[in-house]
Every structure is written in C-alpha cells, then in structure tokens.
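Quarterly update from the structural biology core.
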Amino acid sequence: MSARRKDSITEGKDSEKSGSCSKSVSEKEKGMQCELCEDWFHTSCVNISDELYRCFSKNDGLHWFCVKCNGNFFRLFNSVSRRELRIDKVEERQNTTEISLKSVIDLQISENGNRV
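Predicted structure, tokenized:
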C-alpha cells in the first residue's frame, strides 16, 4: 500500500488520475493507491480520515484496496479457501485409498505365500 507516491518524479508524472472522481491526485494531496489495481484515490473521495491516512503512512504492513478490488479480493479469498478444503478432502481420500490398497496387496501376498 502506498499512502504517498515516492517515485512520481522519476516516472516523469506530476499526478495520477483518481479512480473515484477522475481528477488528478497530485503530490501535495492526500492519496491512497490500491494494492491490486494500483489506481490512486483522494482520501476524501474514499472516506479515509486524516488519522487513518497517517496510520497507513506510518505502517507498511497495512493493506488498502479500493471498493471494487476489495470485493474481488474477498471473492478470490473465499474461492481459494473452498479449494483448499476440497484439496484436503481429496488428499484424505487418497490416503484412505492407499491404506486400503496396501491392505489388499498384503492380503494377496499372504494368501499366495500360504499356497506355496
């Protein structure tokens, strides 16, 4: 998450268009960059208070997503969670099948060994 553009001068840009109001977000304005779409938003356009903005500015570990990406993120997260559960179930079935197959093979070996 970026609460301020640090490299806009090296990119040759003075401002970026806001994803909300389509006006420029300049270096002098408080802006938030969405971590997924990388669009910039005026803090006032996305209802981020000055206090919250300061928190984001001081903490690199915080993540911010715009409204559109936030919904997409949670849908993706839920989908990944469901897939992990399905994988766990498949692995459990595979382990059960392997144990059963080993038992059948051991039984056949035992029966064949008794006939010799």
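Confidence is low (pLDDT under 50) at residues 4-14.
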